[in-house]
Design brief:
Elements (H helix, E strand, L loop, with lengths): L8 H25 L3 H37 L3 H36 L7 E11 L7 E4 L12 E3 L4 E8 L4 E5 L6 E7 L3 E6 L8 E2 L12 E4 L11 E7 L5 E5 L8 E7 L26 H4 L1
Antiparallel strand pairs: 1-2, 1-12, 2-5, 3-4, 3-12, 4-5, 6-7, 6-9, 7-8, 9-10, 10-11
């Protein structure tokens, strides 16, 4: 028999491996799109086991992506430099006013004996992967229950609010971004004081809902969290008011999602445990002996 009549074992094995790989990828795709609590726990557990092993492969990819972004931005350096110079000239007049306000605020805090919340701490996390899609905006971080992170923890960066934790593993967690469709953040617009609801819609500029007086809002007004509901701490910068292409008032987030490398996950200390009424009501102070009332007061 000739050489051409020999069976092609290598080609059959290659086709079998391709079919098995395609089946595994299809199964992984279907599992990743199922919206179920048990499947979500399975995904978090899988990422908790797999992500630390692939962390060394993500670093070169992230470094290469940053290098490409820097190469694309070098043409805009001169324009940005000129803009920064003009901004510095404008900010020099505000610097002195800000220092005076800071000193005045410090005097008022000392006068009123104000104590900031000491039970709020944070842990710094690295964004390992972007798990977003056209229908969801989320990211993975390398902290979890072992670091004191729990579901609902607030996530911020150096500029403003990023989102909240939704799905926690032992050493990894998923962050639902502010722009996700399931995100709702109560805020207040400064300086008008209008209460709004920042409702994510998977766009870069989420709309502002439940605005009482829309004419009181101006583009550039700051929006900070109110703390209503207890999910987000108060006075965290969310972003600034902007006018969308559809004429609707929207929010320009303060967080830089294009360069989201490191974030802070805020942790709340557990409330003190009260085991008895003695820890609520202290001992009564001894009342001083009062002189007897005069006869005129008794009548």
């Amino acid at each position: 028999m000739g050489k051409d009549s020999d069976p092609d074992y290598f080609g059959s094995l290659r086709r079998l491996l391709i079919l098995i790989s395609a089946g595994l990828l299809l199964a992984l795709f279907l599992v990743w799109r199922i919206d179920n609590a048990r499947v979500e726990q399975f995904r978090v557990t899988l990422l908790d086991r797999v992500t630390p092993g692939f962390e060394w492969t993500l670093r070169p990819v992230a470094a290469t992506a940053r290098m490409i972004a820097d190469l694309r931005a070098w043409r805009r350096v001169y324009q940005q430099n000129e803009e920064l110079r003009r901004e510095v000239q404008r900010m020099q007049g505000w610097r002195e006013a800000a220092l005076q306000l800071e000193q005045k605020n410090a005097r008022l805090l000392a006068l009123n004996n104000v104590r900031l919340n000491p039970r709020l701490t944070y842990v710094t996390a690295e964004v390992m992967a972007d798990a977003g899609s056209p229908f969801r905006r989320s990211a993975m971080v390398n902290v979890g229950r072992a670091d004191g992170v729990s579901d609902g923890s607030t996530v911020v960066d150096g500029l403003g609010l990023v989102g909240r934790i939704a799905g926690v593993g032992e050493r990894s967690a998923r962050v639902i971004l502010l722009t996700d469709a399931s995100s709702r953040v109560p805020g207040v617009v400064l300086p008008s004081g209008q209460r709004v609801m920042v409702s994510g819609d998977n766009s870069v500029a989420p709309p502002l809902d439940f605005v009482g007086q829309a004419e009181a809002l101006r583009p550039g007004d700051r929006v900070v969290s109110t703390g209503d509901g207890g999910l987000y701490p108060p006075d965290i910068l969310i972003g600034r008011v902007t006018l969308g292409a559809d004429g609707r008032q929207r929010l320009r987030p303060a967080a830089d999602y294009r360069r989201l490398d490191f974030v802070r996950v805020l942790r709340r200390a557990p409330p003190p445990v009260i085991e008895g009424p003695g820890e609520i009501i202290g001992p009564l102070a001894a009342q001083p002996d009062l002189p007897p009332a005069p006869p005129e007061a008794r009548q």
